């Protein structure tokens, strides 16, 4: 059975003035990882787990063996299909050949291209435990998929809560002092009115 590997209809809709290297290719991977069709032991997630363990627990041999087994098990392959031909420009479509879901196959292909470019570590899970969404980190230090998750995570940290308590204590104290001054009224020549 031949299935076409096509990017999602909205794959290019997010390209804007601030696109980042690797972001477009990662969109398919991230969409697959966040999809409801993804099964528990997803090979793409497993490859990302291997990458996060390098060089300590995972070895190149383990990754190679896993990829080889995956290709054999899914009979994974892509085949070029000529859509049309003009002088100096051929339009080629790639068809997935094998047992793997078409979107999963495309995501796997993109992930391997990202690994070749040194960008595989940029596909991450949000650091807020209750979120768990996958995203493409535009910056090396980025740990959260959204500003909302970042703020919620830091607002629950004991350090932030202590700092906030001190800030609010100081704010209430200053408000109390201002109110006292207003009740007394302004001073004139050392005397009150």
Structural class: alpha+beta
Overall shape: elongated
* Total E-strand runs: 7
Question: How many individual domains?
Answer: 2
**Beta-sheet strand percentage?**
15-25%
Helix content: 40-55%
List unreliable stretches of 5+ residues. none
- Quote the distance from N terminus to C terminus: 95 Å
Strand order of the largest sheet: 1-3-2
Largest sheet: 3 strands, antiparallel
Secondary-structure element sequence? Answer: EHHHEEHEEHHEE
Number of helical segments?
A: 6
Mean pLDDT: 82
Computed over alpha carbons, the radius of gyration is 27 Å
In short:
By secondary structure, this protein is of the alpha+beta class. It has helices at 23-33, 43-53, 60-74, 102-117, 147-155, 158-184, and strands at 2-4, 77-86, 89-97, 123-125, 134-136, 187-188, 191-192.
Explain what you see.
The structure is a single chain. This protein is of the alpha+beta class. It folds into two domains: 2-142, no CATH class; 158-192. The chain is 46% helix and 17% strand. It has helices spanning 23-33, 43-53, 60-74, 102-117, 147-155, 158-184; strands spanning 2-4, 77-86, 89-97, 123-125, 134-136, 187-188, 191-192. The protein has a three-stranded antiparallel beta sheet, with helices on one face. A two-stranded antiparallel sheet has the order 4-5. A hairpin with a 2-residue loop joins strand 2 (77-86) and strand 3 (89-97).
């Amino acid at each position: 059975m031949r299935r076409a590997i096509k990017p999602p209809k909205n794959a290019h809709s997010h390209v804007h003035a601030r696109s980042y290297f690797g972001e477009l290719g990662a969109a398919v991977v991230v969409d697959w990882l966040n999809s409801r069709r993804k099964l528990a032991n997803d090979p793409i997630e497993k490859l990302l787990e291997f990458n996060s363990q390098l060089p300590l627990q995972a070895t190149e041999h383990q990754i190679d063996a896993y990829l080889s087994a995956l290709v054999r098990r899914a009979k994974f392959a892509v085949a070029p299909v000529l859509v049309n031909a003009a002088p100096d420009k051929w339009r080629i479509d790639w068809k997935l050949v094998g047992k793997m879901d078409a979107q999963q196959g495309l995501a796997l292909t993109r992930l391997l291209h990202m690994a070749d470019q040194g960008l595989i570590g940029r596909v991450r899970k949000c650091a807020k435990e209750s979120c768990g969404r996958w995203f493409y980190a535009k910056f090396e230090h980025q740990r959260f998929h959204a500003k909302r998750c970042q703020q919620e995570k830091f607002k629950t940290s004991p350090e932030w809560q202590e700092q906030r308590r001190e800030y609010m204590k100081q704010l209430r104290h200053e408000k109390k002092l201002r109110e006292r001054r207003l009740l007394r009224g302004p001073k004139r020549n050392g005397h009150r009115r």
